[in-house]
Every structure is written in structure tokens, then in C-alpha cells.
Specification:
Number of helices: 9
Distance between the termini: 50 Å
Number of strands: 31
Largest sheet: 10 strands, mixed
Shape: globular
Structural class: alpha+beta
CATH topology of the largest domain: Rossmann fold
CATH superfamily of the largest domain: Class I glutamine amidotransferase (GATase) domain
CATH architecture of the largest domain: 3-Layer(aba) Sandwich
Helix content: 10-25%
Length: about 450
């Protein structure tokens, strides 16, 4: 939200959002929101459109129409001259910025790109507290745990991993290295059967926690048909949700109630009545890791780890030094040299290992061909089978696989995952060692290393 000084006797304060996050190329942009503008009249404004490099590409006069008490709408903004890509808009009156930048996608179904990058819109909105409700707080969560939210809400969260800022650095990095991408979002994948058919590679970034069964089906079909997936992401494919009429719904009671709508299709994917396991596609899972050591109270961590282990807990230790994704990446004593901080952050996906290979005695549904390429020490935050074969939920710190490669289906595609919500931050410095790793993973998945 942007609060500005008075101009012409009016106090301006707007919060807006695109009505639809993804617009098909040639279609108009509609904006909705709320305001504290102290006037009953419609207001003439200027909308400026910017690309992901902050270059202004369009400037138009528009009318902010007041509706109801505090609502506003701007309809039918003509974007037909813009190509597919990620854009932001800003609203101005008399050179005064009325609102913070708001992002949207223009999707071109005729694009020649073979690489798609997913914007995790459902997860961004699940954590969005605009209007006082989210999947984690508010009256619905407190009273019933059955929550329904509209997608037509401005993204007001300040976390970079719950905003478009979690995808844009990766798009810039890939373009800098000659890899053109198409941006899609969760809703587009849910609504568009066969959306992934034209692509060779799908990239997941950040925190892509909430999926519909339709999305999951499309992902499985894509990989089964030979499509590859690279995930710079964690806590993915965790919650099953429903989507209807522009709303997302989740049932957080985690119980199946015979005959009750939604109870057998919403909840944790790993619930027995759903039984769809993230690790069956990627080898990694949130349930086999949890949190970075840096997120844990130091007094607790120091009871289980040495101070040296705590200081170096964000390190990634390479297991398969000869793998192409580590080509040209600076490695010292088996550890990837990092220039950025907080890359293993917020939440982590992992897999239990023994002698640097998957420990199949402690995991379920991990593909037998899963290769563990790198490892890191994490806080294992879930009930699990420990290294002594006992089920426990005790506080635990353990070295787990953090980068994996697997082929979930015979003659299908390959999946690669680096299991951190925040590794995308490495892309903000395109010359960094960690950005080199990201590019290598994408090149490996597109077969670029094998090209003459």
C-alpha cells in the first residue's frame, strides 16, 4: 500500500490488484481494489506498465471508478500491443504514485519457448492476510478449519517468497543466459488441459505448497510423457485444494468424513485417503526435512550440534562431484562456495540418506533410481522413522539429501530438485557461484550440455 501527501485537497491511499493474474495475450487488464480517497467522484489517473527490467512499455489515461463504499475498479485497459511476459503496473495522479507496483502475466499460447516457469499464485494467496483471512488465520480458520478465499485480492504480504519477486530474478537470470521462458500460474495450469504439452521443461520456484488434483494430474502426465522438471523450491505439492469460481478452498481438519464434500479431495496430499506423495516425483519431501538450522532457537540447536556445525549449517555438500550440474561451480573440500546468504531458508525438502544414498528403510515411495547429488544438515521437523528404526517426533538435526535427480516413470522425464524455498535469491546476483548452479540445472534438464 502506498500512502501519499495530500494533492488538490485529496488524501490518496489505494490497494489494488489485477482481477486476473494471468491474461491471455490480446486480452484487457482489469484492476480491482479499495481506497480511502475522500471523494465520491471517479478519478482520472495514469497507468504505467513496466517489464521485469523496470522499463516503461506503456502509459495510458484511465478512469478509477468508485464502487460501493471503498471499492474501485478500472476496466478494459488495452494491452494488445504487449508480448507475452511478466509486467507490473503503477497508478499515478499528478505525478503522485497512488499504489505500490502490482504484477501480472501476459500469456502467449503461440510462444515458441519450450520452457515454462510456474508462479505459485495459490500459495501466495493462501498466506495473504488481506481482508483479515488466510489459510492460517481468521474466523474460518479459528472456527471450522474449512477455509475459502477469493483470488481477487491484492498481494499485501511482505515476504519475498510469497510474492512475484520469487520468480522474477530467476526469469531474468535465465534470459541473461539465453533461455527464454513462458510464465504460467497455478490457476492457468488448473484451468487449461494440456497446457504443458508444448514444453520440454517446467521450472518450479520458491514456495509452491498448494495444488489442485487437476494440476497434480497434469504434472504427472507431463513427466510421464517425457517432460522434465527443475524445482528450486521446497514444501511443494503439500496441500490439496479445490478451486471454483475464482475461489480457493482447503479443509485443514485433516480427516475424512464420509459423504462430506471436499473432505476426500482436500488436505495434505499424503493423507491416507488421498495418498499422493511428493517424493514419488522428486525423491525429496518436506516430511523428510523441515527447517534450516538457522530457523531454530540457538539454545535448542546447541544441545544437538557443535558451534561449527551451526555456523556451517547453510552449506551444501556435493556428493556426485562429476555431475554436470556442478560443472564450473566453485567447490572447496566438497562444499559449494556461497556468496549469498539465507539461500537454505524458511522451509526445506530432503530425503533420508545412508552412506550418501537414499535410505529406503526410512522412506516410502521414493523412486528407486533417485540419485542424491548433494546434502545439507537440517532440522527434521516431523514424525519420522529415526536412524534406529523407531518412530519418533523428538527434536532432531540430521544430514539429508538436498539435491536429487530421478526418473519417476519408465521412459518418462527427469526431475531435479534443490529443496529450499529461498534458493531463488541466488538469481539476484547472476554472476554468483550459486546462480551458476541454477543455470547448470536448467541446462542439464534441457539437454544443453549434450549439444555440439
Amino acid at each position: 500500500m502506498s500512502k501519499n501527501k495530500k494533492s488538490s485537497g485529496l488524501a490518496y491511499s489505494l490497494i489494488t490488484a489485477p482481477k486476473i493474474y494471468t491474461i491471455k495475450r490480446g486480452g484487457p487488464l482489469d484492476i480491482i481494489g479499495s481506497t480511502k480517497i475522500k471523494t465520491k467522484k471517479n478519478i482520472t489517473s495514469i497507468i504505467k506498465i513496466y517489464d521485469i527490467y523496470e522499463h516503461e512499455v506503456l502509459s495510458l489515461d484511465v478512469c478509477i471508478k468508485k464502487i460501493l463504499v471503498n471499492g474501485i475498479v478500472i476496466e478494459n485497459i488495452n494491452l494488445e500491443d504487449l508480448q507475452g511476459g511478466v509486467y507490473s503496473y503503477r497508478l499515478y495522479t499528478s505525478d503522485i504514485l497512488l499504489d505500490d507496483p502490482q504484477y501480472f502475466i501476459i500469456y502467449d499460447p503461440n510462444s515458441s519457448s519450450k520452457v515454462a516457469i510456474m508462479h505459485p499464485l495459490f500459495t501466495w494467496q493462501a498466506y495473504n492476510v488481506y481482508g483479515g483471512e488466510s489459510f492460517y488465520r481468521g474466523a474460518q480458520f479459528d472456527n471450522t478449519k474449512k477455509i475459502e478465499l477469493t483470488l481477487e485480492r491484492p498481494l499485501t504480504t511482505q515476504s519475498d517468497y510469497h510474492r512475484p519477486e520469487s520468480t522474477i530474478p530467476t526469469i531474468r537470470l535465465l534470459e541473461k543466459n539465453g533461455i527464454k521462458t513462458d510464465s504460467i500460474c497455478n490457476l492457468t495450469l488448473h484451468e487449461t488441459k494440456g497446457l504443458l504439452d508444448k514444453y520440454d521443461l517446467l521450472i518450479l520456484v520458491g514456495h509452491d505448497e498448494y495444488w489442485t488434483h487437476t494440476m497434480y494430474d497434469q504434472l504427472e502426465d507431463f513427466v510421464r510423457a517425457g517432460g522434465n522438471v527443475v524445482a528450486f523450491a521446497a514444501n511443494i505439492l503439500c496441500w490439496a485444494i479445490e478451486v471454483e469460481n475464482g475461489n480457493i478452498r482447503v479443509d485443514k481438519r485433516n480427516q475424512y468424513i464420509e459423504g462430506e464434500s471436499g473432505s476426500n479431495s482436500s488436505g495434505h496430499f499424503r493423507n491416507p485417503w488421498i495418498n499422493r506423495q511428493q517424493q514419488s516425483l522428486f525423491g525429496l519431501a518436506y516430511w523428510y526435512a523441515g527447517y534450516p538450522v538457522s530457523r531454530i532457537d540457538p539454545t535448542v540447536a546447541s544441545q544437538h550440534l557443535t558451534q561449527d556445525q551451526i555456523r556451517n549449517s547453510g552449506a551444501i555438500h556435493v556428493i556426485d562431484m562429476g555431475h554436470q550440474i556442478f560443472s564450473g561451480v566453485k567447490i572447496d573440500n566438497g562444499k559449494i562456495l556461497t556468496t549469498e546468504t539465507n539461500l537454505l531458508d524458511v522451509e526445506l525438502d530432503g530425503v533420508f540418506i545412508s552412506k550418501d544414498k537414499v535410505d529406503f528403510t526410512r522412506t516410502v515411495d521414493v523412486p528407486k533410481n533417485t540419485k542424491v547429488l548433494a546434502k545439507s544438515i537440517v532440522n527434521v521437523a516431523h514424525t519420522r522413522v529415526n536412524q534406529n528404526g523407531k518412530v519418533t517426533s523428538d527434536v532432531s538435526f540430521e544430514t539429508v539429501g538436498i539435491i536429487t535427480e530421478c526418473s519417476p516413470y519408465p521412459k518418462g522425464g527427469v526431475t531435479l530438485q534443490l529443496g529450499s524455498v529461498c534458493f531463488f535469491r541466488a538469481a539476484k546476483n547472476p554472476s554468483s557461484n550459486e546462480a551458476k548452479l541454477m543455470i547448470n540445472m536448467v541446462k542439464y534438464a534441457t539437454g544443453a550440455f549434450n549439444e555440439p
